[in-house]
Amino acid sequence: MSIAARLAQIHMELPDRVTLVAVSKTKPESDILEAYAAGQRIFGENKIQEMVGKQQRLPKDIQWHMIGHVQRNKVKYMVPFVSLVHGVDQIKLLEEINKQARKVQRKIPVLLQVHIARETTKFGFDAEEIRDMLKTDLLPRLGNITVKGLMGMASFTSKEAVVRREFRALKELYDETAQVLPNISILSMGMSGDYQIAVEEGSTMVRLGSSIFGVRD
Ligand SMILES: *Cc1c(COP(=O)(O)O)cnc(C)c1O
To answer: How far away, in angstroms, is 135 Cα from ligand 1 center?
Structure first.
């Protein structure tokens, strides 16, 4: 099946409230252009250097999302153009994005990444850390950042009940966060293997790579 056909199929499945991020990491620019020709404008990358290179060569109306772990020393390369940073997992990183964004006079939309999986290797804040942060004046003080919502990755398992429970916990934390930050609107959860469950549990943004572009090498 072509990239355009896969995109069409996914769009038929997704409710209108769910935004599709086409995860193009490791994929050639020709694949991105094929998706672009089919109307896709939001692409996700997980390495800042790769995203910067693609951004320079590809159409300027593409919205680039940084979905991966962010290295602090590379933040400066993405702040001029990035449209959403999903993987913000440390206060120091929030502060660095704020600092670099001020230099280019932008306000950068970010998501706080929450650690919901059982695996200990995944990045992210714990729910308690998010609650504690919301009690402080940290976020209001960071004038060049807007927190748009939360992002999380479920455990890599075929046990649907485990994945569902993790997504449900993230949705609950999202609703709690919305009481303090009423302007949030994005709950980024769901990848190719689990997005149907994520959507059922309240996701508003799915990040799909292999189901659009085929498996990565
Ligand atoms: C690679 C990646 C995805 C997409 O994964 P697929 O299984 O190919 O859909 C989504 N989110 C993050 C954070 C990723 O790194």
So the answer is: 31
Question: How many angstroms separate the alpha carbon of residue 24 from the centre of ligand 1?
Answer: 9
Give the model confidence (pLDDT) of 59-89 as tens digits.
999 999 999 999 999 999 999 999 999 999 9
Q: 50 with 29: CB under 8 angstroms?
A: no
At 217, which amino acid appears? D
Q: What is the pLDDT of residues 152-187, one digit of tens each?
A: 999 999 999 999 999 999 999 999 999 999 999 999
> Residue 118 gets which letter from DSSP?
S
Strands (DSSP E) found in 40-144: 42-45, 63-66, 84-88, 108-114
SS3 for 1-55 is CCHHHHHHHHHHHCCCCCEEEEECCCCCHHHHHHHHHCCCCEEEECCHHHHHHHH
Report the pocket of ligand 1 as residue ranges, CB < 6 Å: 23, 25, 46, 67-68, 153, 191-193, 207-211
Q: 192 C-alpha to center of ligand 1: Å?
A: 7
- Residue 156: φ, ψ to 5°: -85, 90
Distances in Å between the alpha carbon of 109 and those of 84, 116, 147? 5, 22, 6
